Amino acid sequence: MVDNLIIPLLKILIVLNATLVAVTYMVLLERKVIAWAQSRLGPMRVGPYGVLQPIADAIKLMIKEDITPVRADRWVFTAAPIISMVPALIVYAVIPFGPKVSLFGRQVSLYITDINVGLLYIVSVASVGVYGIILAGYASNSKYPLLASLRASAQLISYEVAVTLTLVSVILMAGSLSMVSIVNAQYNSRVWFAFVQPVAFVIFFIGGLAETNRAPFDMPEAEQELTGGFHTEYSGMRFALFFLAEYANMIVVSSVATTLFFGGWLRPFPNIAALRFLDVIPSWTWFLIKSFVFLYIFIWVRATLPRYRYDQLMRLGWKMLIPLAIANLVVTGIVKVMLS
Amino acid sequence: MGQAIAFYTLAAFILGFAMLVVIAKDTVHSVLFLVLDFLFVAALYVLLDAPFLGVIQVLVYAGGIVVLYLFVVMLVNLKRPPEAHHDPRRRTKLGFGLAVAVLVELGAIAGYGSSRPATAIAPGAGMPVTGNTEQVGWLLYTSYLIPFEIASMLLLVAMIGAIILAKREL
Amino acid sequence: MITPTHYMVLSAALFIIGVVGVMVRRNIIIIFMSIELILNAVNINLVALSKQLQNDIGQVFAIFVIAVAAAEAAVGLGIILAFYRNKETVNIDEMNLMKW
């Protein structure tokens, strides 16, 4: 009873709360990092070094007036931010933060669950997340959001194909769809999959940038384009929910990249006994450090690269990334057959 | 017991949302009810020990096909609903009555067939039994390889056809 | 105790709802969606009986049904778009260009 109900509930509570706090502080992190890249300081007034800025932002957004356009579809208008946020959160059910550890005298696994189609579950949940964007633009009953949402969703479903193909090459290497088995396969084969499948990792990262509408692929939501994109008509907490959903998606892509390509919870060189002193850092901390590095790279890329035009973006996705991903898959298959 | 509760709940939601798909006046609402219906059918597959098929249902059906329907609905959404005029030749009530009669008949056939339980068909020899995905993959790639290849050709032809049909000038 | 008969009755009910949708509605997109409901009903039947007969062939067939449904949806919606561009309607009562 305790094992089947209380412990998973506790894990869900911890993961959800940690995610929501992390997402709120991602706003501050982004503003700070972009500011430092531009030789300025970022938010410094609210709290020491601007640490309380997200709380000020949250209070401001919560007390803003909640406007619904006159002839908008009310149910769909209200549901769209929720449909955007929920898939970003439920992916955490299968992401492994660490192996089985013993806590308070019982064996507790540091992941909420491990279904044997875990990777496919993540991809399918991501493809349901497109609905939030389409419905937000449609329900606003206004020209600019509709166009922007159609553009954004077309971008998302185009890059989904490339990302899924790279994931198939990872599955070929690991031999299983479950996330824990993929980390264990990296342990058994003594090498992180990023070094065995560099092309797949690069395509996954670029696809991840495009999937989360991050720069340089953020044309559908940039303020200079289409007056603000698919969330133009949203105000207050619903607008905040869209942005939080985008940051949550970023964290999800970082976590999945860490698990699939960079060893998940494994420390660097887990089989070399001479580096045993690195074990003082627990497994889940390694996972968080690696995810944080990816988040930093996300923000770094936004501060550095200019924006893609929409036709350049679609050409990159369809004409360059998908053939490259298919070629990578074919080469992986051939090499795997030859080596066995 | 838990399985019975799960089955009846899922069945109620599936049939309820299916009726809402057919009944709803606004086409976008119909599409949204269809998405929810497919998600519940995927949950039913998981209940039936077919998790791979459940995830494929969400990925392909709910996340691909219905997105396509939503795009087309938004491109052809007219302000005047197509059923604005009532056609006197249509006999809606007779149609519903006949539908109920056919449903009762199908239920009777299904109930009669269950009184003689069928014997299990043994799976093919040499299949490693290590989980649902591996079993389905094994079958797809050994016994049913030719239908698999033909299905991929079908998808290629459909893709080319859809691109040509939707172009502005041929 | 949930026997496959329960699943067959559920599948039959879903099938009937889909057929009623095809016959009663005039909007061609809703007719297509009702056809998807029919295909899902068939899939539920296949998977339930595959579990009863302990053979995964039903699930393989269901995957093929999903693939064929995807192909049919793509081509069908392409046809609807091409027709809409010419005649500006989605009511099948008005799609009678080839009627004598």
Describe this entry's structure for a reader:
The complex is a heterotrimer of chains A (340), B (170) and C (100). Chain A has helices at 2-37, 53-62, 74-90, 118-128, 130-139, 143-174, 179-188, 193-196, 198-211, 237-261, 283-304, 310-339; strands at 100-103, 106-109. Chain A has one domain. Chain A has 340 residues and is mainly α. With 170 residues, chain B is mainly α. In chain B, α2 (27-47) packs antiparallel against α3 (51-75). The longest helix of chain B is centred in the middle third of the chain and has 25 residues, at 51-75. Chain B starts with a helix and ends in a 5-residue tail after the last helix. The relative contact order of chain B is 0.06. Chain C has 100 residues and is an all-alpha fold. The N and C termini of chain C lie far apart (56 Å). The mean pLDDT of chain C is 90. In chain C, α1 (4-24) packs antiparallel against α2 and α2 runs antiparallel to α3 (57-87). Chain C is elongated and about 50 Å long. Chains in contact: A-B, B-C. At the B-C interface, α1, α2, α3, α4 and α5 of B face α1, α2 and α3 of C.
Quote the average pLDDT of chain A: 88
Number of helices of chain A: 12
Distance between the termini of chain B: 59 Å
Uncertain ranges of chain A: none
Briefly note the structural class of the backbone of chain B. mainly alpha
Strand residues, percent of chain A: under 5%
Average pLDDT score of chain B: 84
Please tell me the total number of domains of chain A.
1
Distance between the termini of chain A: 45 Å
Largest sheet of chain A: 2 strands, antiparallel
Structural class of chain A: mainly alpha
Percentage of helical residues of chain B? over 70%
Q: Output the CATH topology of the largest domain in chain B.
A: Four Helix Bundle (Hemerythrin (Met), subunit A)
